[in-house]
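name: query_chain
kind: protein
chains: 1
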Amino acid sequence: MSSKVLVALRIKAPPLRVFEVFTADIGAWWRPNPLFSFTPRSPGVLAFERTGEGTRLVERLSSGKVFEIGPVRIWDPGRRLVFGWRQASFAPGMDTEVDVRFEPVDDETRVTVEHRGWDTVPIEHVARHRFPDAVFLQRHAEWWRALLTSLASQAAMDVQERAKEGDA
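structure:
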């Protein structure tokens, strides 16, 4: 059985726009959580970065160092985004994966986040804080819900700004 988090939220914007805000503006809407820091020096600023080998999600620390959270495995604008997720303390093979789907529902987008693979990270590991599986997954799901709420606010601001530009 795979330990995973599954959360969803409707956002009042078209799927492509929500995807663009999710990826291009992640540094603006992402809210760090001290329980789930990527490195001991976190928080930094998240960004999707294109490299010669593809795209990856990174955290840029104030020291100038860059930590790779994970490679992007699927980049399908307006539909789906899948990327690896690891913390600096993860041993080889302790990789989790985030699968984000963007589905049109009337004039909104249902954003569904499935963060799977937590069964590769032992309960005793610092990243899980020795929480029992159900408690850890609940806390992580609460954080993802808060992140999606922040994404929705950023998307709403983006839509308003575009509307103002259209009026000018």
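note: The chain has a mean pLDDT of 90.
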